[in-house]
Design brief:
mainly beta; Jelly Rolls; six-stranded antiparallel sheet; disordered N terminus
Length: about 190
């Protein structure tokens, strides 16, 4: 476990030039785990969905690119609430749950000055419309976003109030709930 945290910290220094290392009071670095930096064939791990799976008419796609030596994913499209629709998303299935002690999700993102969402699924979200959701805003500049697990709201009353990190099965970046154009870039995705 200690070795994994050290490796994650080294990767953050290499990938982000140290910019992504969070400091606690007293200057100590907190542990974090990077699960995606979009450098190693991300197209084999990420899936793209729209509300068309349930009759909606939203459109879009995901592309993987590089800029200034950094790799990232770009989700673009148009969310339409017509025909009971209203979402597009890019989803990553987790090979293993995050490490013990995980308290939140960490992203480095930019986009078109719109609110977006992270959706988490767990072993308890059995139905397609079940998830845990937290919102965040993006700007035209790269910014770090931290979403504590207790900020995620369950999509229904049958789910636990807060998602259990040890049962997480997938994570999605989602444009949802209103008619709008989508452009969001994700450079780093992980847990803290």
């Amino acid at each position: 476990m200690v070795l994994r945290n050290v490796i994650s910290a080294i990767l953050a220094v290499v990938i982000l030039g140290g910019a992504g290392l969070p400091a606690m009071a007293g200057g100590t670095v907190t542990a974090q785990t990077i699960i995606e930096d979009f450098t190693m064939q991300p197209q084999t791990r990420w899936r793209f969905f729209t509300d068309q799976v349930m009759g909606g008419v939203s459109t879009g796609g995901i592309a993987f690119a590089q800029e200034d030596g950094a790799s990232f994913a770009r989700m673009t499209g148009r969310v339409s609430t017509a025909n009971r629709g209203g979402f597009i998303q890019m989803r990553l299935d987790l090979a293993t749950p995050p490490p013990s002690g995980t308290t939140g999700v960490r992203l480095i993102v930019r986009g078109n000055d719109q609110p977006y969402f992270v959706h988490l699924r767990t072993g308890g979200t059995l139905l397609p419309w079940q998830y845990y959701q937290a919102s965040f805003d993006v700007s035209k500049s790269w910014n770090e976003v931290r979403l504590p697990l207790d900020a995620f709201k369950a999509s229904g009353g049958l789910l636990h109030k807060v998602p259990d990190h040890s049962s997480l099965t997938s994570l999605a970046i989602v444009a949802y709930g209103r008619d709008h154009d989508v452009q969001i870039d994700v450079r780093v995705l992980g847990f803290y």
